[in-house]
C-alpha cells in the first residue's frame, strides 16, 4: 500500500515541532487526530515512526528517513510547479516547427538564433519539407506551427487552419551577369518576351507564375529547360541558357555570375504565412516563436 501524502506531511510537522500538539496547532487538527493519522501511517509503512513518551514524542530512525523523503518530494513538487509556470509563461517547452526549403536556407538561421537569444530554454524541433507534407503533418498534430506559401490564384479558405500573414515575397528576375539586362535598372516583362526561360519542373507554382505574367504582358514564354531546384536554375541561367522568375527569398543564396533584377509593373507576389490547426493547443512557446518569425521577416523586408 502506498502511504498517504497528507499523513506523510503530518509526520513532517511532528518532526518540526517535536510534539503531536505542536503539529496539531500548525495543521489545525486535534492532537488525538494527529496521533491517529500517525498510527495509520505506521500501519501503511509497516514501521514504527515515533517513540511516544510522557513528555512528547521522538521520531525513530525510520521516522527521520520518511521525513527526509517527504522533504525531497516537496522539493520535487515545488520544482514541478516552477516548471509548469515557466511552461505556461512560454519560457520553456518544445515547439515543433515546419518550414519549406527556401525559407529554411535563407531565414531559418536568424529565427533559431533569435529564439535562442530571447528564450534559451525553448527547444525548436524543425521539420523541413515541401508545402503538402507540412500540411499533412499539421493535420496529424505532429507540428505546432508551420510556414505555408501561395499566390493570389491558389489561395483557398480553410476553416481548420489559422493563418497569419508574415511576408509578401516579391517576384524577381534572374539573369546572367553578362546578359544585357544585367545593366538595365527597370525591366518590364514585355521587354523580355523574346527571351528563353528556365522553369521549375513538375508543375511547380513558379512555372504557373511565369505563364500568368507572360499572358498578362501579351506573350507566350519559350521554355528552354525545366529544372528541379533553384540552385540548378541559377546554374542554367549563369550558363546563358535562359532567364528565370522566382521569389526574392529563393535568390537569397546567389551565385556570383548571376544578378537579380526587380520587375516593373504589377507582378504577383508570394504570400508567406504561419499556419496552425485551429482546434490544437497554441502554446505560449509557439506564440513566442511566431513573434520571432515576424521580427525576422520584418528585418528581411527592410533590406
Automatic annotation (TrEMBL):
One of the record's GO molecular function terms: DNA-binding transcription factor activity
Residue stretches making up the HTH lysR-type domain: 3-60
CDD domains xref list: PBP2_LTTR_like_6 (cd08423)
InterPro entries, per the entry: LysR_HTH_N, LysR_subst-bd, WH-like_DNA-bd_sf, WH_DNA-bd_sf
Gene Ontology CC: protein-DNA complex
Record keyword Transmembrane helix present: no
Keywords: Activator, DNA-binding, Transcription, Transcription regulation
Highest taxon in the source lineage: Bacteria
Entry keyword annotation includes Nuclease: no
Family the entry assigns: Belongs to the LysR transcriptional regulatory family.
Protein name: LysR family transcriptional regulator
Source organism per UniProt: Mycolicibacterium sediminis
Lineage, broadest ranks: Bacteria, Bacillati, Actinomycetota, Actinomycetes, Mycobacteriales
